[in-house]
Write a structure and sequence with these properties.
By secondary structure, this protein is of the alpha+beta class. It has 3 domains: 97 residues, no CATH class; 74 residues, Roll (SH3 type barrels); 80 residues, Roll (SH3 type barrels), CATH 2.30.30. The protein is 18% helix and 37% strand. It has 1 helix and 20 strands. Strands 7, 8, 9, 10, 11, 12, 13, 16, 17, 18, 19 and 20 form a 12-stranded antiparallel beta sheet that branches. The protein has a 4-stranded antiparallel beta sheet with strand order 3-4-5-6, covered by helices on one side. A hairpin with a 4-residue loop joins strand 10 and strand 11. The longest helix has 56 residues. It is elongated and about 110 Å long. The N and C termini lie far apart (198 Å).
C-alpha cells in the first residue's frame, strides 16, 4: 500500500441476539428502552386449568385459640371458642386487638356466670328459709293443738241441757274451739246480735266464766263473762193461736228473724192483720214473743216491757 494512503480496518461484527440493540417503547412516561433482551412471555394453552385463587392466610395463636384474617376495609374477622361456644367477632382496624376483645368477652362471661351462681345460691337460701319457717309454724300449730286438747280434757264436766239461746242486743259472741279465752283457743267465727244458737249443755271453768257447748259441734260460746250474760235463754211454750196486730195503741209490728229487737227485720204487719203462732217465747228480759206457724225463723213481739200489748189474742 502506498505511503499516505489511509488504511482502513474493519473489525468483524460479533453476532448479536435477535432483537438486541433495537428500539422498543419504554414504560409509561416516554423514552425508549434499548439494549436489553425482551422478557419472555408465556401464553397458557386454551385447555389448561385456571390458576387457583390464593386462599386467605390465617394466623393462629395457640394460647388465645383465635384465628383472624385482615379484610379489605381494615377490619379483622376473629373467632374463638369461649366456654364451649364458638364466637365470631369483627373488629375495625386497631380499635381493639384480638386478645383485648376476647379477654373482655371472657371476663364478661365469667361475670355473668358468677352472677348466675350468686342468684342460684340466694334462691337456695331463700328456699331453705321458707322451709324452716314452714316447719316452725307447723311445730307451733302442733304445740297449740296439743295444749288445746289437754285443756279440753281438763275442762269441767258438761251439764247436759239442750236449749236455745239468742245473742243479746248490741252484742257479739265468739264461737271458740275450747271453753277458754286464752290464745290457744281458736276463734272460729263471730255471731251477730239476735242470732239463735242451740246448745247441748253448759259448763263452768272456775274462773267465773260460764260456757255452752254447741249442739252437734266441738265448739263453745261464753254464756256469762263474770259481769253479765251474753245470751238469753229462749223458753218456748207450744201453743197454736191467732193474734190480731195493733194491741192497745194500734201498733205496727215487725217480723224478725229471732226473738230480739236487734234481729234482722224480715217483714212488716199493719194494725188489724191476723197472724197464726205455734207458740210463745220468753227471753228473760221481760219481752214476750210469738213464733209464727210454719216458719222457723219468724218471730213477732206481742208484749213489750215498755210499750205494753202489741197484739191481742183472738
Amino acid at each position: 500500500m502506498p505511503p499516505g494512503t489511509a488504511k482502513t480496518r474493519r473489525r468483524a461484527a460479533k453476532p448479536r441476539p435477535a432483537g438486541a440493540g433495537t428500539a422498543e417503547p419504554g414504560p409509561a412516561g416516554g423514552g425508549l428502552a434499548t439494549g436489553g433482551p425482551a422478557a419472555p412471555q408465556t401464553v397458557p394453552a386454551a385447555d389448561s386449568p385456571a390458576p387457583p385463587k390464593s386462599a386467605p392466610e390465617f394466623r393462629r395463636s395457640i394460647t388465645m385459640e383465635t384465628a383472624f384474617q385482615p379484610l379489605a376495609d381494615g377490619r379483622h374477622y376473629q373467632s374463638r371458642v369461649v366456654d364451649g361456644v364458638l364466637t365470631f367477632v369483627l373488629v375495625r382496624g386497631d380499635e381493639e386487638s384480638c386478645s383485648e376483645r376476647f379477654a373482655r368477652l371472657a371476663k364478661q362471661r365469667e361475670e355473668e356466670a358468677q352472677k348466675r351462681k350468686e342468684a342460684e345460691l340466694a334462691e337456695r337460701q331463700q328456699q331453705q328459709l321458707r322451709l324452716e319457717e314452714e316447719a316452725r309454724i307447723a311445730a307451733q300449730h302442733e304445740a297449740q293443738a296439743q295444749a288445746l286438747a289437754a285443756e279440753v280434757r281438763s275442762a269441767p264436766p258438761l251439764t247436759a241441757e239442750k236449749a236455745q239461746y239468742v245473742v243479746k242486743e248490741n252484742g257479739r259472741v265468739y264461737i271458740r274451739s275450747a271453753p277458754s279465752k286464752s290464745a290457744d283457743s281458736e276463734i272460729i267465727r263471730n255471731t251477730d246480735s239476735g242470732e239463735i244458737v242451740t246448745s247441748e249443755g253448759t259448763l263452768e271453768t272456775g274462773d267465773g266464766y260460764k260456757w255452752i257447748k254447741l249442739d252437734g259441734s266441738p265448739h263453745y260460746m261464753v254464756l256469762y263473762n263474770t259481769r253479765e250474760y251474753t245470751m238469753r235463754k229462749m223458753s218456748l211454750t207450744a201453743e197454736k193461736a191467732q193474734y190480731v196486730v195493733g194491741g192497745d195503741g194500734g201498733w205496727k209490728v215487725y217480723i224478725r228473724s229471732a226473738p230480739s229487737k236487734s234481729a234482722k227485720i224480715v217483714g212488716n204487719t199493719d194494725p188489724g192483720d191476723i197472724v197464726t203462732s205455734e207458740g210463745t217465747v220468753e227471753t228473760g228480759d221481760g219481752n214476750k214473743w210469738i213464733k209464727l206457724d210454719g216458719n222457723p225463723s219468724s218471730y213477732m213481739m206481742f208484749y213489750d216491757s215498755q210499750m205494753g200489748v202489741l197484739m191481742t189474742k183472738k
